[in-house]
Write a structure and sequence with these properties.
Blueprint: H1 11-35, E1 45-47, H2 52-58, E2 99-101, H3 116-148
Antiparallel strand pairs: 1-2
Length: 153
C-alpha cells in the first residue's frame, strides 16, 4: 500500500504557503499603519520584500522539506502611548518576515509618517498578489488531481 503524500512536502506548495503567509503578515502590518494614522510620531512600517531566493538559501539550497521561517522582531514602540502589535511567533504560528520602518512620502507636523493613500495602494497590491498566489495554488491542485486520476476517467 502506498502512503499518502503530504502536500506540504511538495516544494511548489511549500513556497506558496510561505508566500501566502508573508502576504497575510504584510496585510496585518499595513492595517496597523492605518490604525495609527493619527498617532503622533508614528512611523509606518512595511515587510521586507519576499524573496524566493532567500527562502531557498535558508533551506541550504535544497528544494525539499519545509521552508525556513524568518524571525520577526518584536515591535518597536517609539513612544509610551503607542499601540504595539502582538508577536505571532510566540503563539506557535509561523512568522514569514520582518516588519521594518518605511518612510512614506509625507510626515505631518506631529511627526506621523503614515500617508493613508500610500497605505491603501500597498493594501491593494498585497491583495492582488494574494489573489494571484491563491489562483496559482488552485491551478496546481487541479493539475495534481488530474494527474492522480486513473486513466480513462
Amino acid at each position: 500500500m502506498v502512503g499518502a503524500m503530504n502536500i506540504g512536502d511538495i516544494p511548489l506548495f511549500s513556497m506558496l504557503r510561505n508566500r501566502l503567509g508573508y502576504l497575510s503578515e504584510r496585510q496585518n502590518v499595513i492595517a496597523e499603519n492605518i490604525a495609527n494614522a493619527d498617532t503622533p510620531g508614528f512611523i509606518a512600517r512595511d515587510m521586507k520584500p519576499f524573496s524566493f531566493e532567500e527562502t531557498l538559501r535558508g533551506q541550504g539550497g535544497q528544494m525539499g522539506g519545509s521552508a525556513t521561517t524568518l524571525a520577526m522582531s518584536q515591535p518597536v514602540m517609539t513612544q509610551a502611548g503607542h499601540m504595539t502589535g502582538t508577536s505571532r511567533k510566540a503563539g506557535g504560528v509561523q512568522s514569514y518576515g520582518k516588519a521594518v520602518k518605511s518612510r512614506d512620502s509625507e510626515t505631518t507636523l506631529d511627526g506621523n509618517g503614515v500617508v493613508l493613500e500610500d497605505q491603501m495602494i500597498k493594501m491593494t497590491e498585497t491583495r492582488m498578489e494574494y489573489d494571484a498566489a491563491i489562483g496559482f495554488y488552485q491551478k496546481s491542485m487541479a493539475l495534481l488531481r488530474m494527474a492522480a486520476r486513473p486513466p480513462g476517467r
